Amino acid sequence: MDSPSEEKVKHDGHPDLEHYASAPVAGGVFDANEEHEVFKTTAGVNFRTVEWPRATVIFLKVIFAVGVLTIPTALYDLGAVGGTLSVFGWGLLNTWAAVIQGDFRNNHRGCHSIADMANEVGGPICREITGALFIVAYVLLTGSGILGVSIAFNVFSGHAVCTNWFSFVAMILVVAAASFRKMSQIGWLTWAGFASVFIAVFIVVVAVTQVDRPAAAPQTGDYELGFAAIAYPSFAAGMVATCSIFVSYAGTSAFLPVISEMREPRDFRKSLYLCMAIVIASYVSFSLVVYRYCGAWVAVPSLGSAGPTIKIVAYAVGFMGLLVSGCLYLHVGAKYVFVRILRNSEHLQADTWVHWTTWLGCTGGLGAIAFILAQAIPIFNYLLSLTGSLCFAPIALSLPGWLWCHDNIAWRRGKWWQQIVFWITALMIPLGMFICVGGTYGVVVEIKEAYASGRIGSAFSCEDNSGTTAS
């Protein structure tokens, strides 16, 4: 007969998930869920302090700032109808992928990251490949945050000094903000960051409707707006646009370390659904308005689409949001490396010099790499598209499909509707592989053309790419 600590029970509210029951021990009740969690509430430094409302804002800040700055450009390549359908479709699919990841984490409490989940279904080799993709993804996203902050500095100063110096200062600020150890400690930054970028984008959305023609378009004579309901892009341009929209939602793997620091990990669905509802509605409405009034003349990032004065105002208001984006991405990537190094060590949740040296080494080291990559690919939407195709397609599409099939293998031979759901979800696996190969090819082709045409200068040049438009 199994001991009480080995008895499995159904989880309240999640009948498809099995969890270990609480078992009586000397001096009180031992929670087997707590035993399998990476961060213990009984340890020296308690990381489990995030409530679900704060988790919602962290999720929002991880997702929102990226997409809203790049989707209007993607709509130029896909057209208003195709682009809107893509925004809705990727939003719903990434929400489903996030549900799969969160449920899998709560069903396998020892999973702190997407790499731990890969280990559950594919073993150590799959874990290391996934972990490498995860780190690369969040280093690239950190680079996009550094690039966004450096563009803001250029806007404020009128490009007073070389962009490389602004990028270096941006890196220092991002690393400093990311070096707080707990998600709850940067919680107030996420509130301020989300509010600032939301207001900044709203200012731009209103401003573009109040001018006779886009700020980047010729101000006299006839001009072509570049607005179309249906567009016919090349394969490379279409894949870059698709990856830009996909990556705008695909950072769901960053939710997992946050779930591990929630007081009650079972509440993650509340945070997820509220976050994704706000994000999808905002992406569709904001992006369509900017594309309708700017067409081919939308700036990348889109905060520069309404003219010099509004551009300064928008970047001033949204500066905190750009900084916090880089901070969150770096924190998530560094936390993964930190846990991998110190897991099952007394230093993981102890105020020791090993603990602090490891943590600061992770934030500083990854921040430096992100700075280098941001200078090598200094156009915002290309950097994000490469992140989506190369890294997030496998870990945010293919792997969640595999995870769901692993935990629901009985559905393959279940009722007819269960079989349909099983095979539809299984299609996420080849879809992710297609986006990975096709998207990476498209981004490489577009970057090569941008260098050849002079839209991108040499690596570590002093050029400012904030004025790049879709055309």
Automatic annotation (TrEMBL):
KW Transferase (keyword) present: no
Matching InterPro entries: AA_transpt_TM
Biased composition (Basic and acidic residues): 1-19
Domain Amino acid transporter transmembrane span(s) in chain numbering: 49-444
Gene Ontology terms, MF aspect: L-amino acid transmembrane transporter activity
Signal peptide region: none
Keyword Transmembrane helix appears in the UniProt entry: yes
CC annotations in GO: membrane
Regions crossing the membrane: 57-75, 81-100, 132-153, 165-181, 188-209, 229-259, 271-292, 312-332, 353-373, 379-399, 420-444
PANTHER family: AMINO ACID TRANSPORTER, AMINO ACID TRANSPORTER (EUROFUNG)
Protein's recorded name: Amino acid transporter transmembrane domain-containing protein
Native organism: Cladosporium halotolerans
